[in-house]
Amino acid sequence: MNRDAAPKKAELAAIASAMLEGRVHLIEGVRKITELRHEVGCADDEIFMPIRAIESETDHFPAGAQRSRCSKEYLARADAEVHRYLEDAKSDIFAACREILRAYGEPSGRK
């Protein structure tokens, strides 16, 4: 393993674990994993395909600092849509997170 990638791989595992435990919003976690897959040098790894698909389907939803630039009405509609989407996609997201943990190790040496 490339030593430079090791901290990013640990971060991938930590985010996947936090998503499974409900400590990171699923959309934000999906976006972070999508970003990190490039940084670990595994951008095309099949393990990321479900995450990439979900990120593509949800990239229009506001998150993080982006939300402060949206009206309350728009956020209410977007949040309702996100909630409905996640109800359908949650099991796929969790399965992908478990696969990422298997491939990249448990965070904090809990493997």
Summarize the structure.
The protein is built from 4 helices and no strands. The protein is mostly helical.
Describe this structure in words.
With 111 residues, this protein is an all-alpha fold. It has one domain (6-109). The protein is built from four helices and no strands. The chain has helices at 6-20, 26-39, 49-58, 72-104. Helix 3 (49-58) runs antiparallel to helix 4. The longest helix has 33 residues, at 72-104. The two termini are 17 Å apart.
Largest sheet: none
* Radius of gyration (Å): 15 Å
Question: Treating each run of at least 4 consecutive H or I residues as one helix, how many helices?
Answer: 4
Number of strands: 0
Overall helicity: 55-70%
Give the N-terminus to C-terminus distance in angstroms: 17 Å
Number of domains: 1
Q: What form results from the Cα inertia axes? A: globular
Average pLDDT, to the nearest integer? 90
Proportion of β residues?
under 5%
How are the elements arranged and paired?
Elements: H1 6-20, H2 26-39, H3 49-58, H4 72-104
Helix pairs in contact: 1-2, 1-4, 2-3, 3-4
Question: Could you name the key traits of this structure?
Answer:
globular, 111 residues, mainly alpha
